[in-house]
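Below is one such record:
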Amino acid sequence: TVLAEGANAALLDVDFGTYPYVTSSATTAGGICTGLGIAPTKIDTAIGVVKAYTTRVGAGPFPTELEDSVGQEMRDVGHEYGTTTGRPRRCGWLDIPVVQYGHLINNYQSINITKLDVLSGLKEIKIGVAYTINGERLPYGFMPSTLDGLGKVEVEYESHDGWMCDISECTKFEDLPQNAQKYLNRIEELVGVEVSWVGVGPARHAMATKGFEAQY
């Protein structure tokens, strides 16, 4: 078995990302074929790795960005600073249309939600559930093809109650606070893909599983 890990997010893909704010290579599942010379039929599973909130490095469109104290709290608690440069990452609410778009391109069999613990200090948590342009709701996973188009989108939000407690010792989905479970269930409903792993802390084994028992 070979595990190929994407180094950058789907929207930094040179073909399918928010050009010109992209990297120089294919960051989506197709990059496994073009970058490693592996035939498409040899790929068994694609797992989407998605933060519990959204971040972006550098310039480029970011519809759910928070330029307030909440965004700063995410940045500080999540240590959202470049490892080499120390450059702060931009932070915002989870952008579901971006996750849906990633699923359309990569065909995720499951999702690994990381850094859920970063949201633990928030009383209210929002999810960007859809984009609208001129009052018209865009369909599932639809991503405007130009920066102008993306600049015109407005985000439709849902508000959820936070859980306000430490979750770093949780090892199963059932161990998580009810509001955290509701948050994850809602992500599954909106994306149409099951969540299998949940990051609950910075430690190597700080992962809660959903639907199976972890074997270390």
User: Anything to note?
Assistant: The first strand starts at residue 47 and ends at 51.
